[in-house]
Design a protein that fits this description.
Helix content is about 5%, strand content about 35%. The chain contains 3 helices and 35 strands.
Amino acid sequence: VTRSADGTVVGPLPFWSGIINNKGRHYDEMNQTNIRNNDLCYFNVSEGDRYRFRLIGAQALFAFRFSIQDHKMTVVSTDGSPIVPIEDVDYVIVNTGERYDVIVHANQTSGNYWIWAETLEVETNIGQGFYNSISKHRAEAILHYDESDDASIDDVDEIKTCTSSSPCKAINCPIRYYGDIIQCTNADEFESVPDHVIPQSIYSPNDTVFLNFGFDGESTTSGSSINGVNFRFPANPPLTEYAEFQNSSDMCPTRGCDHDVATHCACTHVIDISSQPRGSVVELVLTNRATDGSTPNGAPHPIHLHGHYFYVVKIGYPENDTSGLFSAANDDVECVITATNVPCPRNFIAVENQNGGFKQSLRWRDLIRPAGIDTQNRFARKDTVIVPYGGYTVIRFVVDNPGWWFLHCHIEIHQLEGMAVVIKELPKEIPTNNLITCPGAGGSLSNLRVSPLIMIVGVIITTLCVYLA
């Protein structure tokens, strides 16, 4: 396990290599050498021109922090949605599934400059530096000026130096505190561009749903879960075979399992918002913590919602000590036994019973909504957002797209283990005629063969696609 600058977990699996546009190097940890016979991607620019880079986080595990040697960036879009430009950026942190558009001004002396996408792993966990990453745990490319005839470039130990007198500027940080060497702008501080009309209803949510992303699935061997439920894929697709889907033995009873919180729970986990009419607003409070919240043994989760853009309303971060290390979880959200209001004994999860009532409830502490959550800011739209370990992220979306929408952690191993739910939205508006069912006896997905070409996608751990437009 490797850790980030605040001591929380980054990599449960070892880093192998990073690639940019299908090119990169593998670093041999044992012999401390790069395998250098691999080509790197060159991005050709002309001095004085500006270029739009589209950063696509196609990796399956590690977040990358993207930077270009001796060049600043202007961030203009996230997940395909324009934002008010953020200028003079040194680092853009791209989590799995996220996309960012940045403008780069080719305003340096003609030559070659490193492009790095480094993991957030650090050599030590003593809060010494955001940029002090584990050596060679990165993807590499080269920015080449057309005016230069030389394509060579020297190896360097770092391409950015952040100090208290000359701090670096980053966006989308998974932790709040980097001392005085990093100034970070995060997703809840992004603003939609002026010509985007934010629905007034977004400021008055009609329903709030709390979902905790954790590893509470089993009592003996923890599994990735949401509210203590490991998601199990159904044998029948709900869109075309609803009756079979609804009657499947894999279905959770309601929003979760009617189970004791210390036992394993795996089922098809559905969040039913069908009572909300078209045009209403659903607020999701995405939390990421264990019951006591006192240890740093967890990682941020990048959460992706299919079928919607959502507005990022607030990110609540955990507490840090004076050295920048994680010290305690954010306490804005609490978990209580519903009947007694006693704190939850073990799992920080909502548990629902057969009748739809909660045995355990997640809620705002003392039923008081935190400061800043109900302001009428110009929230940015995204479809993937980071939930910091020990903290929470609040998102809202308009109910306007009938369907069964997958919400999941975009870290591949977490999603495969069951950190996912399905959101049931406007079911009465879903067409039922002339829909094509899946092949096989009874139309069951269990009769389908999975192509090896599809399977190989799951083993690409560290990829960052950078398209030059």
